[in-house]
Amino acid sequence: MQFADRLNNVETSAIRELFKLLGKPGIISFAGGFPDSAMFDVDGIREAVNLALSEEAGGALQYGATEGYNPLREQLAAFMASKGAKDVTPEGLIVTTGSQQALDLIGKTLINPGDKVIVEGPTFLATIQCFRLYGAQVIAAPIDAQGVKADALEQLVAEHKPKFVYLIPTFGNPSGATLSLARRKQVLEMAVRTQTVVIEDDPYGDLYFGEAPPPSLLALSSQVPGSRDWLVHCGSLSKVLSPGLRVGWMIAPPELLAKATMCKQFSDAHTSTFAQATAAQYLKAGRMPATLAHVRQVYAERARVMGESLKRELGDAIEFTQPGGGLFFWARLTGANGKLKDAGELAKRAIDKGVAFVPGAPFFASNPDHATLRLSFATADVAKIEEGVGRLGQAI
Ligand SMILES: Cc1ncc(COP(=O)(O)O)c(C=O)c1O
Q: pLDDT of 144-177, one tens digit each?
């Protein structure tokens, strides 16, 4: 069979290959990028399903508008307003099938083969793959614990004139890093000055443990004149409520939103109306604040225990910044005292000891750092985290 040339730009993710090994009995996994199924608000979702069927079965079970189900668009605009983005209107957003679809629509509407796009190094692997599928040359901008280095980003933008810049400013995947307020403003100002589209992907911003993170780029855009014209924001219910619902959304300048909607028509016509009506009822019932409070508390405890265990069991063989939210530890093997420095090698040894994590190298669009690794604290309880990190200590 003759496949499309665009497939030559991508390969199956190295991480997916690793996931095949996770079926081994007794493995403690820090490898996933998903929330803990034990924490799903099943009662709340059941109630939302029942309301969707009793109050609006016609809408919930019928074909719907590509832009999204209006009651959900209204709820999502209100949800964004509650997070400081006060000027988002229901018409100013479209509902997408997970934020992954929003990223795909961005690729479809903006990327020509050979175009350059800038992402963080490291960033969400599926995004790198998705943009490459459309023929983009993906360039990585350096980050530190304060997120992307804004000065370096500005230089790369000036040098490469990218089609857009893609950032996960809050509790990044895999970096766990959060862009500082000053850098957020700098990024928005740069977008206006250089007329560069900036994509803010924000599935983790609600999952903070102590202090709330700085406002999203979207919320801050009201303070930087003109920046809204260059900003795209992607949101998702996946990490806070349920990834199985596949409800995400995209807020973008009207022209881009219209093109993305057109592309979505040819892709899935619309996101499941049943899922949208369920999500709308859930948000309308006012359950989200309690749900967020619960998941924040559980993940905060797991993150605390993972940080302490890593220090205790691996000592100076590993370095990391304690994350203030999200689902991930991003760490670096130091090689101290003759311990392993290659996270790929450690991943293999770790599986033999009964614990899994994801090596960091595949998350880099260029210049991979083979000493890095990503550990998720989301799906294992505190006892399993201690045991799993103990096994990691034996593997290194
Ligand atoms: C940074 C980032 N963006 C987008 C997604 C996609 O999420 P969903 O399509 O479930 O909304 C993920 C999921 O892991 C992610 O980590």
A: 999 999 999 999 999 999 999 999 999 999 999 9
Helices (H), 221-342: 254-267, 273-284, 288-314
In short, whether 205's Cβ falls inside 6 Å of ligand 1 is no
Q: What pLDDT digit, counting tens, does each position of 68-113 carry?
A: 999 999 999 999 999 999 999 999 999 999 999 999 999 999 999 9
| CA-closest candidate to residue 96, choices 215, 251, 320 | 251
Question: CA dist 191 to 38, 109, 194, Å?
Answer: 41, 19, 5
Q: Does the C-beta of 100 come closer than 6 Å to ligand 1?
A: yes
Distance CA 323, CA 303 (A): 7
96 CB under 6 A from ligand 1? no
If you take atom 14 of ligand 1, which residue's CA is the nearest one?
A: 33
Specify the DSSP element, H or E, that contains 373. strand 372-376
pLDDT of residue 266: 95
How far apart are the C-alpha atoms of 191 and 86, rounded to whole Å?
Answer: 21
State whether the beta carbon of 243 lies less than 6 angstroms from ligand 1: yes
* Angstrom distance (rounded) from CA 50 to CA 55: 8
Ligand 1 center from residue 16 Cα (angstroms): 15
- If you measure from the C-alpha of residue 335 to the centroid of ligand 1, how many angstroms do you get, rounded to a whole number? 32
Would you say the CB of residue 171 lies under 6 angstroms from ligand 1? no
Residue type, 173: N
| E strands, 108-257, in order | 116-121, 137-144, 147-148, 164-167, 197-201, 231-236, 247-251
Domains, the chain, ordered by start: 5-41+290-395 (3.90.1150.10), 42-287 (3.40.640.10)
Residue 98 CB less than 6 A away from ligand 1? yes
- Ligand 1 pocket residue status of 203, Cβ below 6 Å: yes
Listed in sequence order, the residues at least 6 apart from 288 whose beta carbon sits closer than 8 Å to its beta carbon are: 79, 240, 241, 282
Give yes or no for a contact between 373 and 343, defined as CB atoms under 8 angstroms apart.
yes
Q: Residue of the nearest CA to atom 16 in ligand 1?
A: 173
- pTM: predicted TM-score of the whole model, two decimal places: 0.97
Give the Cα separation of 52 and 233 in Å (integer): 27
